[in-house]
Amino acid sequence: MSMSAGCALPEIDWRAPWFEAVSERGQRALAGGDWRETLSAQAAAQERVSGWGRALRFVAPERLPAAPAYEAFIAATGCVPTRANLHDFFNALIWLTYPCGKAALNARQAAAIAADGVRATRGVTRDAATLFDENAVLFACSDAALGRALRAFDWHTLFVTRRADWGRACEVLPFGHALLEKLVAPYRSVTSHAWIVDVPRDYFGWTPADRRVWLDGQIAPTLASAPLTPRDFAPLPILGIPGWWPANEDPAYYLDASVFRPGRRRND
Fold first, then answer.
1. Which among 45, 54, 94 is positioned nearest to 73, based on CA atoms?
2. By the number of CB atoms within 10 A of the CB, which of 80, 104, 172, 257 ranks highest?
3. pLDDT averaged per 10 residues in sequence order, the chain, 268 residues
4. Under a CB-based contact definition with an 8 Å cutoff, are residues 29 and 4 in contact?
5. DSSP-derived secondary structure letter, 54
6. 124-142 burial, b for 16+ CB within 10 Å, e for fewer?
7. Measured between alpha carbons, how far is 20 from 39 in angstroms, rounded to an integer?
8. Contacts made by residues 19-25, CB under 8 angstroms, sequence distance 24+
9. What's the structural domain count of the chain?
């Protein structure tokens, strides 16, 4: 078990490729003490803020009053109610890894709550924002043909014919914290909501940290104000990504239509 006083979590295999962006920070947080306090100190040192510019910190869920909605409370106070579980642990790590994107989502959700109140159904925009927050990956690509293959459910082109282009013309970076939680115990059908980001060709020559900062800056304006719908995403089975799962070295792996489904989406 990975243990920290008061906030014990199941063991996490930090060597898994999907944890690359959060591995170092996550391991430091679990090295001792309450990981909420450790991550709050990191947020303060890096001047991370909520969607409304309040200093960010991760607090016990008892700090959330009965009346305010979760996103509105975070925006107004900077306090992120954080339970001692994997779901909220990864949420905190993503706040620190993609601070601009998370703040933009928080501001948008809080503004929607302020305008419309808390409803039984969230509406299209809030549904899309929630999908992004919980289950998105950033599909960074410098070749538009790869994005078209993803949207067309053309798995053979994306994963077999163009396999050598992974890491030099496209890559995937997880954003959704619920997705990372599922990947602690991965299973074949884990499927993300991919958000395609066009990147310059020299992007793949940058360091991983520089790529994350650049992507964070690219997605934030869209998340803040552009139209969003669930149809903006493309489904992407995570364990199909080359190099992320040993079994997918065999092209026959992608013939499982229960996971790599043929699509109905228009190729646009």
1. 54
2. 80
3. 56 97 97 93 98 97 78 95 96 98 96 74 83 98 98 98 98 98 97 98 97 98 94 97 98 97 65
4. yes
5. P
6. ebbebbbbbbbbbbbbbbb
7. 17
8. 19/180, 19/183, 20/208, 21/97, 21/173, 21/174, 21/208, 21/212, 22/90, 22/93, 22/94, 22/97, 22/180, 25/93, 25/96, 25/97
9. 2
In a domain, 265, yes or no: no
Q: What is the pLDDT of residue 64?
A: 72
Q: Are residues 151 and 90 in the same domain?
A: no
Task: Tell me the backbone φ, ψ of residue 152, rounded to 5 degrees.
Answer: -85, 5
* DSSP H or E run through 29: helix 20-29
Bridge partners, residue 172, by sequence: 139
4 in a domain, yes or no? no
Whole-number Cα distances in Å, 176 to 9, 67, 92, 127: 19, 26, 11, 14
Domain boundary residue, one of 124, 158, 177: 124
- Mark whether 119 and 67 lie in a shared domain: yes
| Pair (135, 244) in one structural domain | yes
Token pair for 83: 């339970």
| Angstrom distance (rounded) from CA 181 to CA 266 | 31
For 108, half-sphere exposure in the C-beta direction (CA atoms, 13 angstrom radius) is: 26
Strand-by-strand arrangement of the 191-198 sheet: 170-174, 136-141, 191-198, 234-237
**Is residue 8 assigned to a domain?**
no
What was the pLDDT predicted at 65?
75
Per-residue tokens: 124:
């299209």
CA angle 37, 42, 48 (to 5 degrees): 115
Q: Are residues 112 and 134 in the same domain?
A: no
Residue 182 shares a structural domain with residue 71 = no
* Residue 136, domain member (yes or no): yes
